[in-house]
Design goal:
Helices cover 77% and strands 0% of the residues. With 203 residues, the protein is mainly alpha-helical. The protein has two domains: 7-56, Orthogonal Bundle (Arc Repressor Mutant, subunit A); 64-201, Orthogonal Bundle (Tetracycline Repressor, domain 2). The chain is elongated and about 60 Å long. The termini are far apart.
Length: 203
């Protein structure tokens, strides 16, 4: 093998690595980082603990790998907000994307929430280098829309926080929501949040 080149992983290695990460996502989203063990991940993956350690040095590397993969997905809905679009339409579309994410990626949502609740010990660099500049950029866009009279005056930062909290609630508290509502809340949640933010933001 030429010097400086790395051997590509086999299909079996790629499959096992994906299997481990998917199983770990299940376990971390339920038990959190501290409550998760390699034995639990191995059992969920249907692999031996030594097999897990062949691919990852320990549960922290698995956790960090999942968080790294998650960050781009987590930022995408905000990235898609178009500064040249209609302000109300852009913000309501953002609400819809975040609500869809809560429905489609509940494990990822709980993984993210658990990391933040712990003080983001493994994700803080991503928040500072990735989320913070994007957050500042989009808040500046929202403030410009407000200054132009296209949106009602609100604090853009708290507006984004409100969108996060109202949409992510449906992932992090999914069991409670389904018990209280007697089924899938997605459609009625969308109608309610569109109404809520339309009234808040219409000048």
């Amino acid at each position: 093998m030429p010097e400086g080149t790395e051997k590509k992983p086999s299909r079996i290695q790629m499959r096992n690595r994906s299997l481990i990460l998917d199983a770990a996502l299940d376990v971390f989203s339920v038990h959190g980082f501290r409550g998760t063990t390699l034995d639990q991940i191995a059992e969920a993956a249907g692999l031996s603990k030594p097999n897990i350690l062949y691919y990852f040095s320990g549960k922290e590397e698995i956790h960090v790998t999942l968080l790294n993969q998650l960050m781009e997905t987590w930022l995408d809905p905000l990235v898609e907000m178009d500064a040249d679009g209609d302000p109300l339409e852009e913000l309501l579309a953002y609400v819809q994307r975040k609500l869809d994410m809560a429905r489609d990626l509940p494990r990822e949502s709980r993984l993210f929430a658990g990391e933040i609740i712990q003080g983001a010990p493994r994700m803080l660099p991503h928040l500072e280098a990735g989320l913070k500049p994007l957050f500042d950029e989009k808040c500046a866009v929202i403030q410009r829309w407000i200054n132009e009279g296209k949106l009602a005056p609100v604090d853009p930062r708290h507006l984004v926080f409100s969108i996060w909290s109202t949409t992510q609630h449906y992932a992090d508290f999914d069991t409670q929501v389904r018990v209280l509502m007697g089924g899938d809340p997605h459609d009625s949640a969308r109608q309610y949040l569109v109404q809520l933010f339309s009234r808040l933001l219409t000048p």
